[in-house]
Amino acid sequence: MRQNSTVSNNKHKPSSNLIMSGSVRVRVIRTLLAIQNGQSLSSVLDPLLNSLHDGDKGFAHALLLTTLRQWHALSRLLDSLADNPIDEIEVRTTLQVGLVQLLYLEVADHAAIHETVETAKEIGFAHSTGLVNAILRKVAKNPNKFRKKCNKNHSLPNWLAYQLKQDWSEQYASLTQGLRQPAPMFLRVNSAVTSVEDYQNALYGAEIDADIVELTSGFALAGLSETTTSTTLLTKGLRLHQSTAVNALPHFSEGVASVQDMHAQLAAPIINKALMAKLGTEAINTDSDNTDNELHLLDACAAPGGKLAHWLELINSDSFHVKQDTSESSTASDIKITAIDNEAPRIERVHDNLQRLNLSQHELKQAEKNIALNVVCADATRWQGDRKKSAKNQPVFDAILLDSPCTATGVIRRHPDISILRTEEDIEQTVLLQADILHNLWPQLKVGGYLLYVTCSILKQENVEQMQGFISHHDNAVAIELTEDCSWGIEQEVGRQCLPIDSEGGDGFYYALLHKTAE
Hints:
By secondary structure, this protein is an alpha/beta fold. It has helices spanning about 5-10, 25-35, 40-50, 55-70, 70-80, 90-105, 110-120, 130-140, 145-150, 160-165, 170-180, 195-205, 265-285, 305-315, 345-355, 360-365, 420, 425-440, 465-470; strands at about 185-190, 210-220, 230-240, 255-260, 295-300, 335-340, 370-375, 395-405, 445-455, 475-480, 480, 490, 495, 510-515. The strands form two sheets. Strands 5, 6, 7, 8, 9, 10, 12, 13 and 14 form a nine-stranded mixed β-sheet that branches.
């Protein structure tokens, strides 16, 4: 990931070495410097927390995450407080950590100022202690004034704020403020094991409060004829009143529940519902090409495996019924699921998650349904795309779930480092990558099949505009209407867009369901 323009223009770039030593504040600052140098929050958070005593972990976590969430607003405030530009990135970072303590974490003034000054010395910038002391003391005299100033506008890079204003003018104010807030914690309950209601009761027994969240999805699903069938789908999840360590969740290690954003929980049910519609059409269509009595499903860009696991849970549950041949020799249809991702370490996370959920290949073989899972490390822009055209290599997939690469701007609440790591140039490159993946996978989908396109972005270039461009170049791609019965998202020309506005709601996700018709 390239650095953003703010970092690259500084006279002194932060060191790429992440050294976990020194005081808590020093370790947080070194972690922030590593992020500015291009490392992701997910790669540096555990090393930080694991280096600390239990009593310091909560403060370090709050200090790091709050500083990231308010990063750009703090930077602008800092520029207004300094008489001269502060070019040294280490000094700027130290000051921003000090400002967070005074404005957001309610650390006592004397402690915040003294410890931050000492931190400047500890990281080797003793010459800046006078400046650090002066700025923090000025803010401490009237914290409410400076907090209001910091909160008045967005805390995003200007290029991203501008793009959001272009895309979402009506929602801009609430959207930009929402992105700087923490996100709620949601749980997905394994419907093949227990119900949402029963697991809610189990949480209560563990003194964990949670509300049931219900999202309704409305479809106008298409068959191979010109007719459409309207249908609705209910997706249930749990929203915790307070975020909780997973080891405190009842039966978590046994695979009864998973941490997954509520809007992300829509993916598997939607593609599964579309698959059922396809199978229902084939049951009355004598020209169906599904003559091998097998279902072939693809989860593209599957890591870390949350949506894949959800799909497997649905397939493994009693609610999934595969069309059976009515002949005397009929047997249960085989279900062959392929999951691909292009990074080996992320593939390992897929295997780890599936094993916890009792959905590994070995365990699937023990199930009543004939389910075969194949997890492949492969590039979705080229995978199987160079196969020679032959009867053997015709399109094979009945349904494709494409959790497309994106800028992840919809999950900034959970990953606030995104606002530092992303650049304006990333959008164009991501849009091209998405188009390449779609171009490669679409020919591998059977006629009558469905492709669900999902991103966790809130930028229209990656979402509705990507879909409009794809449909305009593919006569056999028809967008399925997600009707007004949907209780989530904002209707787009193609698909629906969820925005992370509500403090009790899910992250920013885009969904578009495509149906493949005859050429």
